[in-house]
Amino acid sequence: MLETDEQLVLPVNVQIGFISTAEDVIHSWAVPSFGIKLDSIPGRFNYVQTVIYRTGSFYGQCSELCGLAHAFMPIAVNVVNDLEFLTWMFMDLDWEILAEDYEQFTLSLDTTARRMYLGY
Ligand SMILES: [Cu+2]
């Protein structure tokens, strides 16, 4: 019931920061096993950090009554060790596109960081 087409893959025993926002209505990204319930609000960035100490599959769902498709917002997280995480991160990566997009990517990160600190 909570399975998804794609799983969020995260490394175990590493400090992880989650940044959340929304485009349409208020959602709430909740995974009870992590002790996280992070509101996703249009026009705002919310932030929480944690360390996950166990590998495995973890599940959650949107916990805000956000609208018509609310029942179809499951969350699946696969927590893996360092080697599995690096393998996942770099497989299927197109290094030429990555090099071309690197400058644009860092510019968009700067914009995101500026918005977080200034709150717009
Ligand atoms: Cu939602």
Structural class by sheet pairing and helices: alpha+beta
In helices, the fraction of residues equals: 25-40%
Mean pLDDT: 85
The name of the CATH architecture of the domain at 8-88 is Sandwich
Q: Taking strands numbered 1, 2, ... along the chain, how are they ordered across the largest sheet?
A: 1-7-6-3-4
Low-confidence stretches at least 5 residues in length (pLDDT < 50)? none
Taken from the alpha-carbon principal axes, the silhouette is globular
**CATH C-level category of the domain at 8-88:** Mainly Beta
Specify the number of helices.
2
Encode the helix/strand succession as letters: EEEEEEEHH
Q: Tell me the CATH superfamily of the domain at 8-88.
A: Cupredoxins -  blue copper proteins
Gap from first CA to last CA: 36 Å
| Major pleated sheet | 5 strands, mixed
What proportion strand? 25-35%
Small molecules in complex: copper (II) ion
Determine the CATH topology of the domain at 8-88: Immunoglobulin-like
How big is the Rg? Answer: 16 Å
Please, could you describe this protein's structure?
- By secondary structure, this protein is of the alpha+beta class.
- It has a domain at 8-88: Sandwich (Immunoglobulin-like), CATH 2.60.40.
- 28% of the residues lie in helices and 33% in strands.
- Strand 3 (27-31) and strand 4 (36-40) form a beta hairpin.
- The longest helix is centred in the last third of the chain and has 24 residues, at 95-118.
- The N and C termini lie far apart (36 Å).
- Bound molecules: copper (II) ion (CU).
- Residues 27, 62, 64, 66, 70, 73 line the site of copper (II) ion.
